[in-house]
Design brief:
Blueprint lengths: L2 E3 L2 H4 L4 H8 L5 E6 L9 E5 H19 L4 E3 L6 H14 L12 H6 L5 E4 L1 H4 L13 E4 L6 H11 L3 E7 L3 E7 L15 E2 L4 E5 L2 E5 L10 E9 L7 E6 L3 E4 L2 E4 L23
Length: 281
């Protein structure tokens, strides 16, 4: 995924004060994300400062008190929107220390991280986390980019002695919801808490598909129907259960499989759907 920051035009303005105002126009698209193209031609996804600011504030509201002044470490590249938000923009805006080097292998956690750091990772890497890597203890583990199997969550939580939070969303919608992995699997009980919408995110079911109204969307006042199939029992407010992507593609760990031509979302200016946070639990 490539990232393009479009700031050159404003910098060339003769009036520097006017240029600064232009750069901070919250409704102007300043970040363009390109999908990898694994299911077709790469698609540009534009983000305004308003959308990014709303996501950062939501993350701070949900996780800020829990992580305190912990430094942020991550296995996800900043060129991915998940990594960009969690590893760079959120800690930068909240005044937290964040590590520039990316952790590419679990063994680097021991050498690079400090006690009580935050670990931003993915199910595919957590599934490979070796038993001998159990220190330092993170204050929080964040997982996204795919479904986190219950057995993996329980094992990693026990090894690192830290809570694990999952994030669900997509490039177009931004962050949608979060949930906590259970401390240990219990027969007859779900392996994690129900999905809870991020602050200011509203959801409902439209003909079996998840619809959103969110400040993370280009138009925060418009309901957007996604391609995600849900049913009663998934979340807290609307009690929905995620059933997978309707007609686009679904991520299994790090693998993406095309299922049929990707849908168009009117609320996202006709851009093709491209998931970067998904879950099939």
């Amino acid at each position: 995924m490539d990232v393009d920051l479009d700031i050159g035009a404003a910098i060339d303005a003769p009036n520097l004060a006017g240029a600064a105002d232009a750069l901070l126009d919250a409704d102007v698209d300043r970040l363009v994300l390109f999908t990898s193209g694994s299911t077709g031609a790469p698609q540009p996804i534009a983000k305004s400062l308003r959308q990014l600011d709303a996501e950062i504030k939501a993350l701070e509201q949900v996780f800020g008190a829990r992580v305190g002044d912990a430094a942020v470490q991550g296995t996800v590249s900043h060129q991915h929107i998940y990594g960009l938000l969690f590893r760079v923009l959120w800690p930068l805006a909240s005044g937290r220390v964040f590590a520039a080097p990316r952790i590419e292998f679990p063994g680097q956690w021991t050498a690079q991280a400090g006690e009580g750091d935050v670990l931003v990772s993915t199910p595919s890497l957590l599934a490979q986390w070796p038993a001998q890597v159990s220190a330092p203890t993170p204050r929080l583990v964040v997982s996204s980019g795919g479904a986190l199997p219950a057995d993996v969550a329980a094992r990693v939580r026990a090894q690192l002695r830290a809570p694990i939070s999952e994030i669900f969303g997509s490039t177009e919608t931004g962050g949608i919801a979060w949930r906590e992995a259970a401390a240990e699997p219990t027969a007859g009980l779900p392996p994690c808490s129900a999905w809870t919408p991020l602050p200011s995110v509203e959801w409902r079911i439209d003909d079996g598909q998840l619809a959103l109204r969110s400040p993370h969307l280009p138009d925060p006042s418009t309901w957007c129907r996604t391609a995600d199939r849900v049913e009663a029992g998934w979340g807290v407010s609307s009690r929905q259960r995620y059933r997978g992507t309707g007609v686009s593609s679904m991520r299994f760990r790090a693998t993406r499989r095309a299922r049929s031509p990707r849908p168009r979302w009117p609320c996202c200016s006709g851009r093709a759907r491209r998931c970067w946070w998904t879950s099939t639990q």
